[in-house]
Amino acid sequence: MKIAVGCDHGGLEHKDAIVAHLKERGFEVEDFGIHEAHSVDYPDIALPLAQSVAKGENALGILVCGTGIGMSLAANKVKGIRAAACSEHFSAKYTRLHNNSNILCLGGRVIGVGTALELVDLFVDTEFEGGRHQKRIDKITEIENNN
């Protein structure tokens, strides 16, 4: 599985740890940056990463900013993206299981690196359950297509 990872200046340490962790686990990783500590606007990272996931170039994405919220707001503007900002284990698992989210957004100023790696593992290891949840995803897609 190929996974896209990116961050702004609020998530560089976490992003670097996530990239190394995913590679160690055997995943192919596309690193959208940033690569050194300098201020950057999170939409400039979220947009190309989200587009790569929407096009199927990457199966999943992980974005890190200060809170995870800004990245999720920007990524969710791309058609076909369901990005979720998570800071605890239950949400990281169930956003995949029930919502079929394809981008996990984390807060580098909200959670530690160890917790971030645990959330990443839950996210990438959990498959969408489908069933009754698919009709809800279809409704989200309908909203997206009509607005």
* Shape designation: globular
Quantity of strands, as a count: 5
Please compute the radius of gyration using only Cα atoms. 14 Å
Low-confidence stretches: none
Distance between the termini: 31 Å
| Order of H and E elements | EHEHEHEHEHH
In helices, the fraction of residues equals: 40-55%
Reported for the largest beta sheet, the result is: 5 strands, parallel
Structural class: alpha/beta
Task: Please tell me the overall pLDDT.
Answer: 98
Content of β-strand? 15-25%
Enumerate the strands of the largest sheet in spatial order, edge to edge or round the barrel: 2-1-3-5-4
Helices and strands in order:
Layout: E1 2-7, H1 12-24, E2 28-31, H2 43-54, E3 60-65, H3 69-75, E4 83-85, H4 89-97, E5 103-107, H5 113-125, H6 132-146
Parallel strand pairs: 1-2, 1-3, 3-5, 4-5
Helix pairs in contact: 1-5, 2-3, 4-5
Q: Would you mind describing this structure in some detail?
A:
This protein is of the alpha/beta class and 147 residues long. 47% of the residues lie in helices and 16% in strands. It has six helices and five strands. It has helices at residues 12-24, 43-54, 69-75, 89-97, 113-125, 132-146; strands at residues 2-7, 28-31, 60-65, 83-85, 103-107. The chain has a five-stranded parallel β-sheet, sandwiched between helices. Strand 1, helix 1 and strand 2 (28-31) form a beta-alpha-beta unit. Helix 1 (12-24) crosses helix 5, helix 2 (43-54) crosses helix 3 and helix 4 runs parallel beside helix 5. The longest helix has 15 residues, at 132-146.
